[in-house]
Amino acid sequence: MTPGDLLLFALQLPLVVLLAPALNGAIKAWKAFWQNRQGPGLLQPWWDIAKYLARESVVSEHASWVYRWAPAVYLGALLTAACLAPTLAIFSPLGRYGDAIAVVGLLALARFALALAALDTASNFGGMGTSRELMFAALVEPALLLGVFAVAAPLGTTNLEALAAGTPVDMAHVLAFGCLFIVAIAETGRIPVDNPDTHLELTMAHEGMILEYSGRPLGLLLLGGHVKQLVMLSLLAAFFLPWGSARDLTAPALALGLVAYVLKVTVLAAALGLTESLNAKLRVFKVPELLGTASVLGFLAVVAGVTGGAH
Amino acid sequence: MMVLHPPDEEAPLELDASIVLAPLGLYLLGALSGVVFPSLTRVPYGFALAGSLSAIAAGLWALANGPVRLDLPSVAPYAALNFRLDALSAYFLLIIGVLASAVSVYSFGYADARHYGGRAVGTAYCAFVGAMAGLVLADGVFSFLVFWELMSLASFVLVVHEHKEAEVRRAGFIYLAMTHAGAGFLVAGFMLLAGASGSLLFDGFRTAAGDLSPLLRDGAFLLFLVGFSAKAGVIPLHVWLPRAHPAAPSHVSALMSGVMIKTAIYGLIRVSTEFLAPMPAWWGWVILALGAVSAVLGVIYALMDHDLKRLLAYCSVENIGVILLGVGASMVLSANGARGAAVLALSAALFHTLNHALFKGLLFLGAGAVHRATGTRDMEKLGGLIHAMPWTAATFLVGSAAISAIPPFNGFASEWMTLQALLQVVAGGDGPPAIAAGAVATAALALTGGLAAFCFIKAFGVTFLGVARSAAAEHVREAPAAMTAAMAGLALACAVLGLFPTLAVQTTGAIAAAALAPTFLAATEVITAAPVSSYVPTGMLAAVAAFAVLALLVVRLIFGPVRERVSAPWVCGVLLEPRMQYSASALAKPVRIIFQGLLRPYRISERRHTHGAYFVTEVHYEGGLRPVYEAYLYRPVVSSLVRLASRVRRVQSGSLRLYLSYIFATLVVVLLLTR
Fold this sequence. Notes:
Chain A has 311 residues and is mainly alpha-helical. Chain A has helices at residues 3-34, 44-54, 65-84, 100-120, 124-152, 160-164, 171-187, 206-209, 215-240, 251-278, 287-310, and one strand at residues 57-60.
C-alpha cells in the first residue's frame, strides 16, 4: 500500500463505520416524518449497537463454531467491501486489490456466513429467513451484475476507479440506475422486498436469519447490516452521481469529496426511505417479479450502453 | 487412401518414453493385481496412487520441457497406439493425477473389505483411471477411441457395482446407452476428418486443418459437439449423469464427476482448436447457449434434489455449463479478432476445469464419508453431523464455499475470470443481437452463482448443521484417517488455488495462448492490460481477516470479554423437536414455486380414514418433479426408436438359412461396390 492509500484508509474506514449507523437513523427519522410521528434520534442505531455489544449472548445448545464465527466474517467481509467501494474519492484504499465483481463476491461471502449460521441453531426461524433471503439473493445476482456490466461494458473494465470516473449522462445510466436501485432495496432488506422493522414470521427474511442472535454477536451483525447498506449506496453514488468526488489526495479535494459524499448518500438514503414509506410490502412471491423487472432494466441498460458507446 | 505417418523427428528418448508409460504401466499393474490377488483389496489403490503420482510428475515434466511423443509398434494396420504429451495433455494429466491421488488415498479407508471390497472394484478402478490418463495422451483416432471405450466400460462396471438394486441396473443401462450413442457421433466425426485428411493420426488432422471445406468443418464440429456433450453431461444429453453418478461408489463418483466428464472438455478443446480451426463465431454462440442452459437448469435441478450425491451430480452439469461459457466466449472472441480476451476466456475455462475437479472431488468424497457413517444419502434424514464429524464437515464447508464461488476460494477466481471474459464479449459485441446474447449469458452465469450458493448452503446446512433429523445421523463416527486426510488435502488445494490463482493461470494462459494464437502475447499480459480489473485474493483475505479480528479486539477493549450462555433455541416457548427445523425441501421450496412452470412439480396425497372423514389414520404423500426434457425430448425419440425396431424385426425371422443369405447378399453388394 502506498502512503496515499493509507491516508485514504485512515479517512474512509472511520467514515463508513461512523456514518453507516447514523445514516440508518436518518432513514428512520425520515420514515417517521412521513408516518407523522416522533421517531428516534439520528444516533439511536449507535446506542442500540453499543447496548448489544455490552450484553451477554445466549447461544443455542446445538450451535457449532460456524454460528460463533459467522458475525466476525460477516462484518469483516462487509468492511472490506466498504473499503473497496469509492466513497469520498473516485478511488478507494483497497481499490488495487479488487473490482466491482470482487465487491459482489464479498457480499456473497457475508450472506453465505450468515445463512449457515441461521441454520446452525436448529431453530425454524433461521431456516425460514435463510430460505427467503437466498431466493431473493439468487434473483438479485443477475440484476446486480447486469447493472454493473451496463456501466462497465462501455469502458471495457470492472475497475471501480474507472467506473467512478465516468460521465453518467445517457439512457443506459438511467436504466442501470433503476436496476441497481431495486437491487439496493433488496440487498438492504427494505420495503417492498423485506421489512426491517418487523419480527413477524409471516413477513421477515433478513430478520429471521439473525433472530437467534443476541448480545455482542447481534451488535456486530447490526453494524454489518448498516455497513452493507452504506456500501450499496456508495456504489450507486459512485456510478451515477460522481460529481464532487475527490480526484486527488489534496485537502480541498478531499474536503469537497467528503461533503459531496455525505450529501449524495443522504439523498439516496432519503430515496430509499421514501420508497419504503410510499409502498406496501409485496407478498413474498410477488418479489421475483420486481427483481425480474430489475434484471430487464439491467439488460436494456447493457444493450443501450454498448450500442450507445459505439456511436 | 490412408497413410500411416512414420514417427518424425521428435523421436522418443528413453526418459520420454518411460514418462508416458510409467503411469499407464502402473495403472495396468494395479488392474492386474486386483484380478490376481483379490483378497488384497488395498493393493490396486496403492498402484493407482503410484500411477497418479507419476502422472503428476509426467505432467509437470512435460509442462517444463515441452512435448514428448511415443509411438508403440502396431500389431495390426491402423491399430497403433500413439501417444503425445503436450501442454494441453499435460494439464489434463495433472488434473487426473491430482484428483486420482487424493481419491486413491481416500480409498484406503473407504474401500475396505466390508464396503466395496470386491475384486471387480479395484480392477475397474485402476482401468478407469488408466483409461482417462491414456485418453488425454492419445495422439491418434485408434488410441483415442480405445481409451474412450475403456473409460466408458470400466466406469459402467463401477456404476453397476450394486447391481442387485433395480434402480442401479437401470442407471447403468441408461449410462451405457447414452455413452455409446455419444461415442457413435465421435466415430462419425473422426471418420469425416480421416476421410478429408487421409490420416488416422492427429498429426495428419493438424496438417490438414487449413484445407478443410467450411461445410465439412461445420459438420464435423456438430458431430463432435454432440458426442462430447453426451459425455460431459450437457443438457439435454445429461440424463444419465444424475442417475449413474450417485449409483457408483463415492470414490468412483468423485472421479466421474471430477475428471471423467472433463475428458469431453479436453476433447472439445483439442478437436475444435487444433483440427477444425479457424472457428467461426456461431460455434461459440452455440456453445455459449448450451453452457448457459446447462448451468442454469443444472443448478436448479441440483437445488431441488435432496439426495446428497444426486445433488452433486446435477451440480456437475451446472459446472460443465460454466466451463462451456468460457469455451464459447473464447470462440466468439477469437472469431471477432479479440485474441487477448479469447485467451483469457479459454484460460478461465481451463482453470475452472481444474477447480471443479478439486472441489467436486472433495464434495463427493465428503458425501461418501457421510453415507458410510449414516447409511443414507437422504438429506432429510441427516443433520448436526458437524459435532461428530468435524473434519468431514470443515472440508465439506470449504468445498461448498469454493463451488458457490465465494471468495477467497478457487471457484470465485475462475468465475471472476469467466465474468471478465463475458464482459469482453458484451463490450466487443457487434450489433445489438450479439450484445444482448452476451448480456443473457452474463445473467445466466450470475443466476447460476446465486442459486449455487443457495444449493450448497442447503447441502451443508441441512446435512451438517442443526440437529439430527433421524436416528441414522445421531450416533456417527468420524471417517478413518485416510479419508479425512484425502479430503483435507483437496480442501487445502482449493484454498491455495483460490489465494494464488496465478499458480494455475500461468499454465492455463500459456495453453490457451498456444491453442488460439501461437504468436500472441501470454495471457498474464492480457490480464494486466490497463485499465486493470483486478482481483487480488490474498489482499481480500487479509482485509477480511484483519477487519474481523480488529472489530473483535476493539469491541473487547471497550466492552470487556465475551460473555456467553448456552441455552435451548427459541421456538415459541415449546421444546425443540428435530422435525421443527426447516427441511431441505422446505428450504428450496421458494425456488420450486418460482420455477414451477419449468420444474412441473407434482404432489399426490391420500388420506385413510376411520369413523368418517374426521379421523385420519394415515396420510400417504408423494412428491417430485417431472423433468420437461424427458417428456418432450426423450419419450418421443425412444418411442419412435422402439417403433422402428419393431419394423426392423420383420427381417429377423430366426431362420439360420435366411441369415446366411443376408450375409451372402451383403458380401456380393460390398464386392460390387469396391470392385
